[in-house]
């Protein structure tokens, strides 16, 4: 960071007008100064001392957080975690791209640009007919039983019972199932027959009936899907909503949550934003695991990641929920995200194969980037942190 840029951020810090991204940039700058004092890596006690000096140097001595011992300790742990790796703050790039005066852009190899993903999906009806939704016209697309399937002007697919239709299918009626699936570089939204809103990320799918049964609502998903579940009653009893993903079943009454269930990820991640859900894993259908808003459960995908019987099949942690669901609002959000995980996101969204020529380094990324950005901009941001690429046809090759 250049001197005038640092002074500008320090001035904004004193005025209390820094954004969270700018705050991260300022702290990262201090960390970089500390790490550059020596050519050899700092020992843990030396790093502790350096971080103490950095913290005292920051002009926040009269801030509430600085005087809050717990808040200071929490932030210091965060700084320690990112200082242990090569840190790159994506917000740094966004900040400088939006403030062009007086700066130089890093040089990268010229590549054929790749456009970001957009709204595209395939709807497979019960009779096997496939509808390419991005090409379909606005209006009624099909009818199944007493349900009309409509594409709105916003591009969402909506399932609505026609006038005079009974609410829910009877036990004797056979359910007819539809599948909505997105390819790489695709995303889509659907409103299910019960009014539940669903967002699908790239390379994802949801299987659901065109009309739910009277006593339960069950869907099956792959990939990454966000739910806002409608509350539906039968008399005074709430009709449960269940989501099957991999080896787990999520039981819901009415809530907002996100599920990541890709085959190439080591875990299935379920994050609760609002309400309450219960997770049942594998054949263990006992009392289940209850999540609270702000919690995420990571379930190992089968036994392939289970090193021993003593290893727990799941972990629960608190997370920044807005970071988890930012994809549906048009952003990549990185919160100490490793390079391999970040590359998998890029591969899905830009429909490009990622290949590694060298071992994956222990990078961590923090920040936010619009999903509407072209691939070239994303690569420029990553190259600021020392990651090197080249593009050959439809392959993104990580060279360093």
Automatic annotation (TrEMBL):
Residue ranges occupied by any Protein FecR C-terminal domain in the UniProt entry: 331-398
Residues annotated as domain FecR protein: 180-278
InterPro entries to which the protein is assigned, alphabetical: FecR (IPR006860), FecR_C (IPR032508), Ferrdict_sens_TM (IPR012373)
Keyword Transmembrane helix among record annotations: yes
UniProt keyword Acetylation, yes or no: no
Gene3D superfamilies reported for this sequence: 2.60.120.1440, 3.55.50.30
UniProt keywords, alphabetically: Membrane, Transmembrane, Transmembrane helix
GO molecular function, one term: sigma factor antagonist activity
Protein name as catalogued: FecR family protein
Species assigned in the record: Parapedobacter indicus
Phylogenetic classification of the source organism: Bacteria, Pseudomonadati, Bacteroidota, Sphingobacteriia, Sphingobacteriales
């Amino acid at each position: 960071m250049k001197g005038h840029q640092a002074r500008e951020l320090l001035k904004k810090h004193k005025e209390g007008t820094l954004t969270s991204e700018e705050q991260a940039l300022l702290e990262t700058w201090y960390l970089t100064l500390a790490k550059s004092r020596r050519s050899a890596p700092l020992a843990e006690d030396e790093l502790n001392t350096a971080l103490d000096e950095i913290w005292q140097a920051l002009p926040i001595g009269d801030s509430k957080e600085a005087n809050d011992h717990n808040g200071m300790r929490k932030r210091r742990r965060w700084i320690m975690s990112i200082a242990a790796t090569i840190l790159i703050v994506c917000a740094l790039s966004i900040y400088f791209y939006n403030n062009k005066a007086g700066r130089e852009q890093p040089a990268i190899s010229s590549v054929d640009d790749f456009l970001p993903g957009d709204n595209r999906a395939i709807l497979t009806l019960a009779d096997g007919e496939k509808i390419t939704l991005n090409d379909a016209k606005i209006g009624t697309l099909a009818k199944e039983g007493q349900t009309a399937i409509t594409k709105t002007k916003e591009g969402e697919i909506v399932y609505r019972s026609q006038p005079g239709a009974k609410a829910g299918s009877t036990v004797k009626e056979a359910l007819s199932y539809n599948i909505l699936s997105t390819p790489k570089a695709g995303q889509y939204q659907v409103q299910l027959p019960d009014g539940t809103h669903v967002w699908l990320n790239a390379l994802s799918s949801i299987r659901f009936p065109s009309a739910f049964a009277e006593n339960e609502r069950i869907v099956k998903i792959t990939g990454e899907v966000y739910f806002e579940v409608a509350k539906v009653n039968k008399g005074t009893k709430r009709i449960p909503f269940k989501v099957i993903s991999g080896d787990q079943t999520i039981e819901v009454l009415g809530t907002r949550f996100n599920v990541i269930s890709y085959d190439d990820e080591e875990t299935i991640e379920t994050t609760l934003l609002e309400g309450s859900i219960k997770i049942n894993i594998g054949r263990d259908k006992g009392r289940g695991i209850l999540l609270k808003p702000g919690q995420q459960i990571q379930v190992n995908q089968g036994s392939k990641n289970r090193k021993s019987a003593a290893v727990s099949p799941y972990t629960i942690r608190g997370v920044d929920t807005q970071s988890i669901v930012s994809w549906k609002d048009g952003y990549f959000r990185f919160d100490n995200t490793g390079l391999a995980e970040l590359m998998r996101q890029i591969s899905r969204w830009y429909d490009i194969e990622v290949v590694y020529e060298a071992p994956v380094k222990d990078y961590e990324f923090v920040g936010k980037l619009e999903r509407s950005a072209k691939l070239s901009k994303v690569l420029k941001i990553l190259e600021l942190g020392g990651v090197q690429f080249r593009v050959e046809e439809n392959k993104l090759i990580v060279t360093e």
